Amino acid sequence: MTKHLNQTIRYCTAVDGSSIAWAAIGDGPPLVRCAMANHLGEVLDNPRWAIAAGLKTIARGRRLIVYDGRGTGLSDRGFEDLSIESAVDDLMTVVDASGEASVSLFADAVGAQPAIAYTARFPARVARLVLYCGYARGLMRRNPSDQQIAQREALLAAALAGWDAPALTFRLLNPSETLPDATPALVSEAAQSMGKEMSGRVFVRFLRAQGEADVSELAGRIQVPTLIVQPTRATRIPFDEGRRLAGLIPAARLLPVDSANVVLTASDPGFDAVVATIREFLAEEEGPMDRGPFAAGLTPRERDVLELIARGLDNLQIAAHLNLSEKTIRNNITPIFDKLQVENRAQAIVKAREAGFGREGAEG
Length: 364
Known about the structure:
The protein is α/β, with parallel strands linked by helices. The protein has helices at residues 40-43, 52-58, 84-98, 112-121, 146-162, 173-178, 184-197, 200-212, 216-219, 239-248, 271-283, 300-310, 315-322, 326-340, 345-354; strands at 2-4, 7-13, 19-25, 30-34, 63-67, 103-108, 126-132, 226-231, 252-257.
């Protein structure tokens, strides 16, 4: 552990061995900020950084959990896999390390895709989902125009050419597009912070990974209450993508905001109203039912498996849903039955549903 101003930074290890830096601030219902790229020393300790004011206000009275995705910040920078799948693994690793059985998620911009995938695969682990300027499909999955492709390639070429140089010239191109409503000082601060978050090579690989990804099918599986806050004038992530996402997620609400910035900034005209709406949304349900002593002895993964058993899924379906092997599911079921003191699946389903599991998508 290391101390960085108001954060105690810890490290956890993902399945593939990558080291992920994370921190928790405050007490209360847990809220995780999901991000593919980040720097713990920049996000909350720097009062000028774009998301700091909004995130701190939204998380007031909560346990805020933040982390640096692989390849960025204080996390392991030596791993080649920077895909959406690896970002989901990072998120899963951090939630497990936090000790929380379930959390609410806040994801902005590129954090939306891994947050969507995680929520779909681990429904018992997510109480509420907030997406700011979210989207399911990356640029290359939206039938982009030749001009859009040329602009993206120019941005990537500029990053490779000058991102890591001391001058901000090349690095300013990205925040100039993603924060067009921000002050020049804030755009400059964003460019400086992004240089600390990651190298130009990593930025290019991240942008290509999210541009090629599409989690639309997973979005359609989400059953948890979801709030999509979508800027109406953002060019990097068009408003129509947020509207499309709201149509994919059955339990989603769409809140349009008059902004062109892809992250929430204190200078946005509707900042106070947006923050208040997000806080109200999160407060509507602080989390899924604790389920009392019935599930007290279950591990987080066993809770995930039991949730899907209660929904009527078989082992193969559960394995596919949680992205695990069928053997792993079978190995989890025996201790679940032992802890619940049941002899078979039918008895487990009855007891689990009585305790509040499987309320969404139960098959009779």
